[in-house]
Structure formats: C-alpha cells, structure tokens
Amino acid sequence: MLFKEYDVVGPEDAVLAVAGEDVILPCSLKPNTSVVDMRVEWFRPGLKDSLVHLYEDHEDRNTDQIQSYRGRTELIHQELQRGNASLKLSSVRASDEGYYKCFIQSKSWYDDVTVDVRVEAVGRPPLITVDGFDHSERLHLQCESEGWYPEPYLEWLNSEGVSLTSETTETQKNTDRFTVKHTITVHHSVGKILCRVRLKHHMLETQIVTSSTCWHIC
Questions:
Q1: Cβ(141)–Cβ(208) under 8 Å?
Q2: What does the record list as coiled-coil region(s) (predicted)?
C-alpha cells in the first residue's frame, strides 16, 4: 500500500491564457517541501506523444518533449526547493488549450494534479463599413473582425444598448483563428450604432454615428 506523504495541488479553476503571452501553470506540494530530488513531469493526458516538460535527476530532460513545446517551457529551479513545480509556458498558442497533468514522484510516493488551460486570442478591433444606401434612406452596414480564438460573439447595438438582429452572418477559421462578419440595415437617421465583438474575458467595439445628412465612424 502506497503511503501518501504529500498532496500535489493546483488551481481549482481553469487557468486563462492569452495567445502570444506567457502563462504560469500552478503546481506545488502540500505541505511545502523540496522537490529538487524528485521527478517532476508535465504532460498532456490522452495524447500519444504527451510530454510537455520533464525534470529528473536534478536536470531538465526534454529529449522526448512534444515538438510544439520546444523552447517554450520552464521550471523555475530555485522554486523547486520550496515545493513549487509550476510550469512557465511562453508564447501561448491556441493549440495549448486543454488539460495538463503535473506528476511528482519520489522513491516512496507519487501524486498528480490536473490543470485546465483555456486560451483566448484577442483579434483586431471591429471594422464597420458602409455597403450602400437604398431608396428608403436606409444604410447597409457591415462589421468585420479577425484574429480571435475561440470563436467570438459579434453583436450590433443601438444607442440605448439594445441588441439589433444581424441580417447575414459569416464565420471563417484560418488555421487557429476566427474571422466574423455580420451585416445589418438601419435607417439613416437612427443615431449611434455599435458593433461589439467579445469573448468571455475580452471585448472590442467600434461605433458609427449617423444622421440625416452625414455619418462617421468612431
């Protein structure tokens, strides 16, 4: 029977990472004790080639590391003596999203914890263009924004913040980023119209102000 000396602990909630930035995947021993003499392995469960980072015999051993993680992972060695085996992941990509296991093993004991990583990529500010007018003095507007992950939510709003129904919607995925494009028709004298693109934690918006004689984009 394995005697459980310590607990490997991680975050209770998912870790939010922003594409292109660095992120820390928390993992540590409780009670705090040095892991310098232990094996620390980070891997992606369920993948055939799953190794993200391996520390063993006092050094990093990443010969079998997943190719896409080469040069992007780091254990802070001075933190290992404090029981902190958190992994620094640099230049986050959309493909980094998913579950990670932090596995720590000594000669007499082992334990692991799962860390859920969610990635968001913030795209370009939405671009509003005027597609044209019709005989009823109505504006045909198009809003487009690219470079998002995961697929964002685009909405049109009037000056009171009330959501307007898009007439046509289009979503495209290029590699791992999404482009969204929505069109709407409004009366020329409607006032301020807002196009907003958002994810759970990020939002960008652009507005167009119309009148009976002019319009301009802000």
A1: yes
A2: none
Domain-ending residue, one of 120, 140, 170 = 120
Instruction: For residue 77, give the H/E element and its range.
Output: helix 77-80
Whose CA is closest to 163, among 187, 186, 194? 194
Using an 8 Å Cβ cutoff, are 130 and 215 in contact?
A: yes
Residue 50, domain CATH: 2.60.40.10
Tell me the C-alpha distance between 11 and 29, whole Å. Answer: 12
The helix/strand/coil state of 122 is: coil
pLDDT tens, residue order, the chain (218 aa):
455 678 999 999 999 999 999 999 999 999 989 999 999 999 999 888 899 999 999 999 999 999 999 999 999 999 999 999 999 999 999 999 999 999 999 988 999 999 999 999 999 999 999 876 766 677 889 999 999 999 999 999 988 888 988 888 999 988 889 999 999 988 766 678 999 999 988 999 999 887 655 555 54
